[in-house]
Amino acid sequence: MSTSEVVLASVGNDVLDTETAYAAVWTPQAGAVVTFSGIVRNHDGGRDVRSLGYSAHPTASAVIADVAARIAAKYDGVRLWAAHRTGPLDIGDAALVAAVASAHRGTAFAACSELVDTVKAEVPIWKEQEFADGTVEWVGVSDAPA
């Protein structure tokens, strides 16, 4: 039986920050807390980004919860927090925040890395970015659920 816990796994419009995630997962038993913040940047592929927004499939909340539960089951004794933001975001905003607490740093790093990679690979969220030249690009749309 795993002693791990998913503290939060969500998709929504709420502003995200690593301090909230850190505070949610930390306990006196944790010797390590690893946080990750995926930040909206002002460029992509050598082009200037003017604006950016994220859209989610209706199943996104269930998928991120499943991802977090699978990672928690794989790494014993971790506390996980993962959230992806939707809607319009500004340059510098956090789009994806994750935190993992564990008794040991190796476990915390491994679980956080796998959590972020799996969220990015499996949760049906799409990015629309408008470039300075007026062109628009959707990222991840080809991965949309049927």
What's the arrangement of secondary structure elements?
Layout: E1 5-12, H1 18-25, E2 32-39, E3 43-44, E4 47-56, H2 60-74, E5 79-85, E6 87-89, E7 94-102, H3 105-122, E8 125-131, E9 136-139
Parallel strand pairs: 1-5
Antiparallel strand pairs: 2-7, 3-4, 4-6, 4-8, 5-7, 8-9
Any overview of this molecule?
The protein has 146 residues and is of the alpha+beta class. It contains three helices and nine strands. The protein has helices at residues 18-25, 60-74, 105-122, and strands spanning 5-12, 32-39, 43-44, 47-56, 79-85, 87-89, 94-102, 125-131, 136-139. The strands form two sheets. Strands 3, 4, 6, 8 and 9 form a five-stranded antiparallel β-sheet that branches. A four-stranded mixed β-sheet has the order 1-5-7-2, with helices on both faces. Helix 2 (60-74) runs antiparallel to helix 3. The longest helix has 18 residues, at 105-122. The radius of gyration is 16 Å and the shape is elongated. The mean pLDDT is 95.
Kindly summarize this structure in a few lines:
The chain is 28% helix and 40% strand.
Structural class: alpha+beta
Average pLDDT works out at 95
C-alpha Rg (nearest Å): 16 Å
Unreliably modeled segments: none
SSE order: EHEEEHEEEHEE
Percent of residues in β-strands: 35-45%
Helix content range: 25-40%
Query: Helical segment tally?
Result: 3
Shape: elongated
N- to C-terminal distance = 35 Å
Biggest β-sheet strands, sense, barrel: 5 strands, antiparallel
Oligomer: single chain
Query: How many beta-strand segments?
Result: 9
